[in-house]
Amino acid sequence: MAFSEGPDAGLALIDTLHLDAHLGEYHMLHATRADLLRRIDEAGLPVS
Question: Which pTM was predicted?
Answer without folding.
Answer: 0.75
